Amino acid sequence: TALLLLNRREPLSVILLCLLLLAYFLFFLFFSLSLSRRAFRAWNEECDPEPLLDFSLNDLKRYSSPQAQITSHCNAGAALHGLGRFQEALEHLDPTLLTKVPGGKEYTILLWLNRSAVFYDLAQPEAMAHCLSMAEQALATSSLKPAQRALCAAVLEQNRLACRLLTEGPGPEIEAGYQRLLSAAETTQERVSRHFALAQCALAREDTATAREHLDYVIAHGNKLFARAKALELLSSLSL
Fold first, then answer.
1. pLDDT digits (tens, 9 = 90+) for 30-46
2. Cα angle vertex 235, ends 232, 240, to 5°?
3. Measured between alpha carbons, how far is 164 from 177 in angstroms, rounded to an integer?
4. DSSP states of 145-190
């Protein structure tokens, strides 16, 4: 009788255990998604890369799949770049990581685009151009969905314009390009980046008043971005 009673209770205990495990999984998933949303909101709207960096580094320890690893590396690289920690960013954006996800064109595009942005701030146009070429090749042979393809193409075009700013210097065509990008900007982080580029263009044509307006925006909204420190330095030089 005791054995029969135990057998009758066992399925119930198994069900309860499964329910508890499911509840834990759902809680963990919700908590992780909540942290992810918070980290990207801080990056995009508050210009604070630190939550994204912390989240990405934790994910590198938590998940071992190649796809999760390279996504976290790319996000960590972007955050470190935003903080002005360029060499650390390049370590996370190492192209050898791509060998772990053969055929993963979306990861290839993401890594090369993020890597190109770092070389822009390091003022290395040849390295930047190489990264853009690799991203373009991956995009041309990818099977991304239309929305993803459009987003990657837009970032590629923006980074090409930045590369031209390095190689050609500020000019009317480049300034007009950044004006268009500013009008299309959807996040504070994007606006900060484009205002700084427009400040450089304004200074090139000796329009210090307009340059100050753009730099004031970067300083007011740049928060922890490296661009804010650059804007402060540039504005200080204008006051001398």
1. 445 566 888 989 999 99
2. 125
3. 11
4. -HHHHHHHHHHHHHHHHHHHHHHH-S-HHHHHHHHHHHHH--SHHH
**158-191 pLDDT, tens digit each:** 999 999 999 999 999 999 999 999 999 999 999 9
* Alpha carbon of residue 5 to chain centroid: 58
Q: What is the torsional sign of CA 98, 101, 105, 111?
A: negative
Measuring CA to CA, which residue among 160, 165, 225, 238 is closest to residue 191? 225
How many residues make up the chain in this entry?
A: 240
- pLDDT: is 14 or 205 the higher one? 205
CA-to-CA dists, residue 29 to 15, 33, 219, angstroms: 21, 6, 36
* Separation between Cα atoms, residue 217 and residue 189, nearest integer Å: 11
* Contact between 131 and 121 (Cβ < 8 Å): no
